[in-house]
Amino acid sequence: MAITREGRICSFCGEPGGPGTDLRLLGGLGAQVCATCVDDFHAILHDEEAVAAASGPFPWERMDDAEVLATLPRILASAEQNISFAHEWVDLLRSRSISWAEIGRALGVSRQAAWERFSRRAADKGATA
């Protein structure tokens, strides 16, 4: 099972990525980051004034209502991307014959709870081992 960058967005700026873009998969936890965001964060981390400014109020505290509303769909797209990534990882585990009981233990839930949450998309629908 291949986990690809196709159809992903940058988890920081919301820009779409995929083949032929600068989007990169980091750490295996679903976070995606584009080269522009990496460069921007690198510049901030090496500039004491920029670090101080970034350590100030949260961005949403400076936004008006229209900006907060405009940001909400991007936040949900990032969250949905991470949920989709979790399903891909469960599919990967199932393709390696990892049992629902083992997946449940890793998630701190029962085998049944893991199956109910992830089996609807799993390639082995109906498998309950």
Description:
This protein has 129 residues and is mainly α. The protein has 5 helices and 2 strands. The protein starts with 23 loop residues before the first strand and ends in an 11-residue tail after the last helix. The protein has a two-stranded antiparallel sheet. Helix 4 crosses helix 5. The longest helix is centred in the middle third of the chain and has 31 residues.
What features would you highlight for this structure?
single chain; 5 helices; about 130 residues; two-stranded antiparallel sheet; Znf_CppX_C4; disordered C terminus; about 50% helix; mainly alpha
Topology overview:
Elements lengths: L23 E2 L6 E2 L1 H11 L2 H7 L10 H31 L4 H8 L3 H8 L11
Helix pairs in contact: 4-5
Protein name: ATP-dependent Clp protease ATP-binding subunit ClpX zinc ribbon domain-containing protein
InterPro entries: Znf_CppX_C4 (IPR010603)
Organism: Nocardioides pinisoli
Summarize the structure.
By secondary structure, this protein is mainly alpha-helical. Helix content is 50%, strand content 3%.
